[in-house]
Amino acid sequence: MIALSSLYKRIPIATGLVNSFRSGYTIVQFRNDLLAGITVGIVAVPLAMALAIASGAPPEFGLYTSIVAGIIIAITGGSQVNVSGPTAAFVVILYPISHQFGMGGLLTAGVLAGIILFLMGVFRLGRLIRYIPYPVTTGFTAGIAVIIAMLQLKDFLGLQVTTGSGHFLGQFISITSAVPTLHVADFAVGLVTLLILVFWPRLKTRIPGHLIALLIASLAVWLAGRWLDGFQVATIGSRFEYINEGLIAKELGFIWPWNLPNADGVSSGLSLHMIHLLLPAAFTIAMLGAIESLMCAVVSDGMAGTRHDPDAELVGQGLGNIIAPFFAAIPATAAIARTATNVRAGGRTPIAAIIHSLMILLVLFLFAKILAYVPMSSLAALLMVVAWNMSEAKEFVHIIKISPRSDVAVLLTCFSFTVIFDMVVAVAVGLVLAALMFIHRMVELTETELLNRHEHQHLNDLPEYVAVYDIDGPLFFGATDKAIGALHHYQRTIKVIILDMTDVPMIDITGIIAMRELIKTLHKNGIKVIFTNLSPRIIQKLERAGLKPDPGHLVYCRNINEARTEALVSENS
Fold first, then answer.
1. Domain for residue 477, yes or no?
2. What's the predicted TM-score (pTM) here?
3. DSSP-derived 3-state class of residue 555
């Protein structure tokens, strides 16, 4: 623990674990963590398999992710209560990667994403994630939910879908074209599962609804297969036949990710060309993983009364995603639903997340054959409910109703671009649009006003050739033209201009250059400029740009009274 403590002073690592033990770890807390870990582990098993399948990977890859990445991130991360594993948000990113590059490319991209996340944490970039506007995150999250739900229609309806594009429009066309191949039995099982998932929460029981739904659906399919001639639905066992032999528990071991097959069924290999192809996808995985993990940490802190270290959380997520692919794990991040379940069940330290992973490992070894009976349409129904909860449709509509038009434009743009293109384009466009909207608002706040000397007692004795301007707001590149432009419209009789800069909090290089050019113009026209109430920091910037005090031409005054005196001195001289 001493070595670990000295390490995270240099690299932010394992602060969640360290902080959990600083105040003492009791038997009572271990019991709570044990119960919470077991609960979350049971909840996570079907979700892990469903999310792996939806991402284009075999179901066991999802279980391996929850086991290996879940333990590593819990130990090395910055949150005390986050539970990590495969998440729904990743589905829309991972599916196109697996479609194009196969498992070798998908796992290699996970390693690259882990390196990016680790470096983000080392360079203390965790706190920057909070600057992403709420409409941007809400927009792309809702868009991701729509895509996830759409991708489940194939298994939910039992369709025979020809391979289509990895993107939304290609998938949508493939699915709609395959509607005539609807399989009634698969649809019936999926519909029953969906109804149980929807109505089970109304019973207000602590037993997770999706466990009951999958148990009932699996039992019904097994019984129907024995009693009804010709009854057949797609199950995990029929889709991945080796699971019937219980082999998935034996395959958990070290592999080289790039030696797994690519989309053509041969080894991907590791090369600079492959890394170059996978870097954009890896960057997308890393950015979404960072956003998802830190959002989850903020939410869980509010629920548990804890406090996370964002940089250490990124380091932990990075290490988990670097190491886990060597054990056939797909990219992982903190999962809000599983984390919330952990907190509600009493988990307060990373020990609960570690126990959750060990619980999944136990299920993997003891019940691998039983998992083969879970219907694919039931997993699809489960992910459709996950997508609905993820979309936060009520919040989406509420934001549209109450938000300014600019925020609504950002929200709808991110949503549309996520669905039509991908999350990277959506976030990039959303951030640019949000930045432009912010600049526009700041420009509106910045203004320059010519003060009427008769309305201000301290100015009423100034001569007519003195003009006093009050500049309000930041002088940055967006607002400079508006603020400085107003100063060019002065009467020809003016000989002295006083600029009251009390309400100017900052000035950038665009503002400095514009101010310098204005003073040059005024100097040529024989007009003296007096600055008043400038902060020392801004004075230093102006002087460094060449605007140094010049008696008779440019003067800096501490307040308006000094400026008045200086203006009257100008009259006498």
1. yes
2. 0.80
3. strand
